[in-house]
């Protein structure tokens, strides 16, 4: 039920983000969604792509520090309070959200959020028990 | 104005005759009392009797800082411990500190040379000397203090830190002379300005600044902001402490080395060969009157040049130029000695950190700053910012704890630090560009 995300270390330097996306584009890797977390010195670019292995290897070849992480994609009813309902389940289960960001496409009437949890398996169990739809990676890569 | 006119204005022939006599006597003493010198002099095939002229100095072996470390703590002392009245030590940032001992006569000599230095800088009996050099194992505070007392001036033993109080005391006590590192003087002036106090309204007229490298541009800046005459002082604990050499206020062109107590030489740091007057090289000093821990041809690692040209002040002692660098890779950051290898050792101790780093030293708001750039490899990379920040904080904390220097760690991309062929360039020092 995990989704593979790749993370790239990027210094806050002119043109670095453009370079990463260009390398991926040239390799035929399609970015499904992304989030960029930044500090004054550096940023961490987190990507969900159609081919994580390939993305990782082309970026590593170009000298970037890349890592792979398992994240969880959850469908959220696209209505007021939709996100709050999910977070309430996690809160009740004592599960920490390390970070989260939205998937750019909608899935039917639902939005998709990407979560990074401290306890991934526990989070998936808690969400599925409450009938939230946790999406498998394959769905996202090809969406 | 002189403190000891007779000695400060000795004709060159008289200085050299005195140096030769004192050198022979010192060599005889260490040969007898210090096993390290007994051995190294024997190896070089020299003894006190074989020194016929000052040129024979070049036949004597060098003494290195490492020799002092290897002799930790007391093995280079040339007198029994009961004759040692004071012990100082260098910061010891590479492990064991360099320990130096003084007999009563050494303290007397040091006080006199510091008093001479004060007078050369334009300080007189009746001045109020605000001494912000650190007191303690570091020689700066007590060295200047005893010199001030010997001169008969009033000394305020402030030591470093507590800037607000420093400014208050200077205002209220009417300090006329300030002794501290050049960067701290500017820091104090800035801090005062924030409190609405202009240093130019204080009574300060002379500032004696040393213990770190500074430029002519910085002198002008200090003189403008503090409204005083700023002079450069040189010293090192291994040789004595502050007051080994000082600029005279008349010329401010080179630092007079007190040649009746020290013999300066300039050598090529690579070959050890003695260089002629005016050429840049490493300063080597032989102490010729010290009792506690006399040193033969001590390699200071400081780069300068020497001139014997007469000075307008009337002092006949040779002058060395403002220090222009080091022949090793030691950095002086806010008065603290830092070797890149020490930072490297700390980085290597942090799990996952790779050995690619560069130190960037700068001077911002008149204070030295140190930035340590560290490459982020896969071993330490995380998709969470807090983990990366924890690593920088950990390194910053360890450097502060082990070296006593505040730094900023900046994580950079792999391979962004230039790899050089041969010796890696570990240091970018932007301070002397001004």
Automatic annotation (TrEMBL), chain A:
It comes from the Bacteria. Residues 71-142 form the ACT domain. The lineage of its organism: Bacteria, Pseudomonadati, Thermodesulfobacteriota, Desulfuromonadia, Geobacterales. This is ACT domain protein. PANTHER family: ACETOLACTATE SYNTHASE, SMALL SUBUNIT. It holds the Pfam family ACT_8.
UniProtKB/TrEMBL annotation, chain B:
Keywords: Ligase, Nucleotide-binding. The gene is paaK-2. Belongs to the phenylacetyl-CoA ligase family. GO terms for molecular function: nucleotide binding; phenylacetate-CoA ligase activity. It holds the Pfam family AMP-binding. The lineage of its organism: Bacteria, Pseudomonadati, Thermodesulfobacteriota, Desulfuromonadia, Geobacterales. Its EC number is 6.2.1.30. PANTHER family: PHENYLACETATE-COENZYME A LIGASE (PTHR43439:SF1). It comes from the Bacteria. This is Phenylacetate-coenzyme A ligase. It comes from Citrifermentans bemidjiense (strain ATCC BAA-1014 / DSM 16622 / JCM 12645 / Bem) (Geobacter bemidjiensis). Residues 65-286 form the AMP-dependent synthetase/ligase domain. Residues 335-431 form the AMP-dependent ligase C-terminal domain. GO terms for biological process: phenylacetate catabolic process.
